[in-house]
Specification:
2 copies of one chain form a homodimer.
Chain A (H helix, E strand, L loop, with lengths): L2 H15 L14 E6 L6 H5 L6 E6 L4 H15 L3 E7 L9 H12 L1 H10 L9 H14 L8 E7 L6 E3 L2
Parallel strand pairs in A: 1-2, 1-3, 3-4
Antiparallel strand pairs in A: 4-5
Helix pairs in contact in A: 4-5
EC number (chains A, B): 4.2.1.1
Catalytic activity (chains A, B): hydrogencarbonate + H(+) = CO2 + H2O
Organism (chains A, B): Rhypophila decipiens
Chain lengths: 170, 170
């Protein structure tokens, strides 16, 4: 067992010992979802004030709304959420490369077949050159999507990894 | 401003007041990633023992490895992670429907164009009928993927929303 796997087991033993939330229902109690980045420096529950059971939390590289659309529609249409809080962040890795850079790295490290497999799965790796603009564009994408009804409230934010603050953009 | 947006602002003010982690680096310090479900009843940091800055956390509907491949490859090839901890959970919404049910609900609620947009984006919404089997299949998918090198350590787990326990499957 790896050190990381051992850590999961130890944390789980400790967490479950004092666990008292086994009664929570499947649909989020506060009917909202948070979409943010997979970045290691973000703890959504603490930073954005999410109580256990209250909200879906979707995370991917860059907090991409395009990438998250499947999960967002399932959240809303099957589990009743009616509000989206989208949070990108300062210092995001997605600000640091372009598609061709990334595919080039994969091809160099893992070979042409690996790069081709990734290209087929994700022809666009969804990097973005400007943070605030990317928040605006992702909110606009969701507002335009027919699969997200107009009744859904959508806001866009930036989390600052340097200060722990979250500020509204749109 | 909605009550949920007010809650984000209040939580952020409180969190940033005592924030001391502004120095953390972009690449995850412990070089691993956790892939789990967006389910509101999961707090990965607490349940799986993730310290701020240590690991990428990817979350989507069902903890789908197929859906997460873009983020996983970016995590590994651009940000140096070398281990994947994949955690699905009991009581998952993805156990409760089939693709045609979900597309039918979207069409009924939002119209044929919305269902068609979703179908184009995600022809498979990635539900699964059996929990443990789905964990095994997702781990197998990652092990088979050329874009995930053999050197990456992969384990598959189930989190029990009833007990707060995480147990290893594969």
């Amino acid at each position: 067992m790896s050190a990381i796997q051992q850590n999961v087991e130890a944390a789980s033993a400790k967490y479950s010992e004092s666990f008292t939330k086994g009664h929570l229902a499947l649909p989020p109690a506060k009917k909202y979802l948070v979409l943010t980045c997979m970045d290691a420096r973000i703890d959504p529950a603490q930073a954005f004030g999410i109580e256990l059971g209250d909200a879906h939390v979707i995370r991917n590289a860059g907090a991409s709304a395009v990438d998250a659309l499947r999960s967002i529609v399932i959240s809303e249409q099957l589990l009743g959420t009616t509000e989206i809080v989208l949070v990108k962040h300062t210092g995001c890795g997605m600000l640091t490369f372009k598609n061709e850079d990334a595919f080039g790295i994969v091809e160099k490290n893992l070979g042409a077949e690996a790069a081709e497999e990734l290209r087929k799965h994700s022809p666009d790796l969804l990097p973005f050159p400007e943070l605030e603009k990317a928040v605006e564009e992702d909110v606009a994408f969701l507002k335009k999507s027919k699969a997200v009804p107009e009744s859904v409230t959508i806001s866009g934010w930036v989390y600052e990894v340097e200060t722990g603050k979250t500020r509204r953009v749109v």
